[in-house]
Specification:
single chain, 18 helices, about 400 residues, about 0% strand, globular
């Protein structure tokens, strides 16, 4: 049987690596809101934050929230298509290979979720990624139907939640987490107090407790269906764009500018509502509108940014910027995990316990500083090694050596 080996540096597509590097910056901006303590506040407290902080948060809500994890999701679908394409010339079992790859990623994600930070996204990606082989041989029309259906489901769930918000089902996981917190003796401690505690057991415990209701919160927000829909958008784009990327034969598709404009306008409405009510998700009539604007804006803007980014790359302009972004993107998994480790050490009780002490107006400066450090590290690492440390571990555990004849 022909063996499949990891992609070498010469085989990589710089455009996709650069887009991953670009997405890392947006992911970092969004995650820093959590590390600085935004979600330890009530909606009423968020509304009363100082004006400079609220201005920065508004622009993050408008230009960042939902869009950059959307870009990562699209790229995940593109990556799946790339891996499947490499298997077509071999006798290897692609589905078995892909499941191994997702199982390893799930292990990394679960370790990250429980040992580092409950805001992990890798576990979700790995579990949903296991469904992608089901769509590999679908026609473009069938994929489009699935994409539309999957992107509509979150809105239907939000409507159902609004109509049945008093049902005990929705709060079951949250109540279990609260009960466990009481059993562990932390009932009188707030999330902020446990996050910034000098006692490592309290910092670790709140991370585990907050991870418990996360699967239900994903269902309530429709995240499962939204992300899978974005995966399929990536798979569909890969069929049309990968040959063009390889040949640098790319032009701005008709309508992509309109996608971007509609996305920006929709997300402006989302950010405005969030600034007024102090929360990204509400079970009210206004919350239903907010949810619609979020999904519409995040999806269209992520799609538009991804396509325009590739077009600018193909034009040959700003080559220096793309080269540096590609360095970050080649180590996207490592850099994502280490961004969060840095956040934990800066803002949790494990380290400097700066949560709720740093104004939100400094988020862009902190993000640039972290990304600059990661760029220097990534550049130094890749001079000596072909892959980042976590990328190496992921691939080493995924690819099986050829059987001896």
């Amino acid at each position: 049987m022909s063996s499949i080996k990891p992609t070498t540096g010469s085989e990589r597509l710089q455009a996709l690596d650069a887009l991953r590097g670009f997405a890392l910056f947006g992911i970092l901006l969004a995650n820093l809101c959590s590390f600085l303590g935004l979600y330890t506040y009530s909606p009423e407290e968020v509304i009363l934050l100082p004006t400079p902080d609220r201005v920065v948060l508004f622009f993050i809500d408008w230009f960042v929230e939902g869009k950059f994890y959307g870009i990562f999701s699209i790229l995940f679908g593109v990556g799946f298509a790339l891996q499947a394409d490499r298997f077509r010339s071999t006798e290897g079992n692609f589905t078995a290979f892909w499941f191994r790859r997702m199982i390893v990623l799930c292990g990394i994600g679960l370790s990250h979720m429980y040992l580092v930070w409950n805001g992990d996204i890798l576990t979700l990606y790995s579990l949903l990624g296991m469904l992608l082989p089901l769509f590999l041989n679908c026609s473009n029309r069938t994929l489009l139907r699935w994409i539309v259906a999957l992107l509509l489901i979150p809105l239907l769930i939000h409507g159902l939640l609004y109509l049945t918000q008093d049902a005990s089902f929705w709060g079951a996981m949250r109540r279990f987490s609260t009960g466990l917190k009481t059993q562990w003796g932390f009932a009188d401690l707030s999330t902020l107090e446990m996050r910034t505690s000098n006692a490592a057991v309290e910092v670790f415990s709140i991370n585990v407790l907050l991870a418990i209701p996360r699967p239900m919160s994903y269902f309530m927000s429709g995240r499962y269906f939204h992300v899978l829909g974005l995966f399929l958008i990536g798979l569909l784009l890969a069929r049309h764009w990968l040959p063009k990327i390889r040949n640098n034969d790319i032009s701005v598709p008709t309508g992509v500018i309109w996608f971007g404009m509609i996305g920006l306008i929709a997300h402006f409405g989302y950010a405005l509502i969030k600034a007024m009510i102090g929360t990204p998700f509400a079970m009210t009539e206004v919350g239903l509108l907010q949810g619609f604007l979020y999904h519409l804006g995040a999806t269209l803007f992520a799609l538009a940014i991804s396509m325009l980014f590739i077009c600018v790359w193909a034009s040959g302009r700003y080559a220096f910027v793309f080269r540096n972004l590609a360095v970050l993107g080649r180590m996207a998994l490592t850099n994502y995990i280490f961004q969060n480790i840095i956040g934990v050490l800066l803002f949790f009780g494990y380290g400097f316990a700066l949560m709720a002490k740093v104004p939100y107006m400094y988020i862009p400066l902190i993000a640039f500083a972290i990304l600059a450090a990661q760029l220097a590290f990534s550049r130094a690492w890749l001079k000596r090694f072909k892959q980042g440390p976590l990328e190496f571990a992921w691939r080493r555990l995924t690819y099986r050596p050829p059987k001896p004849k």
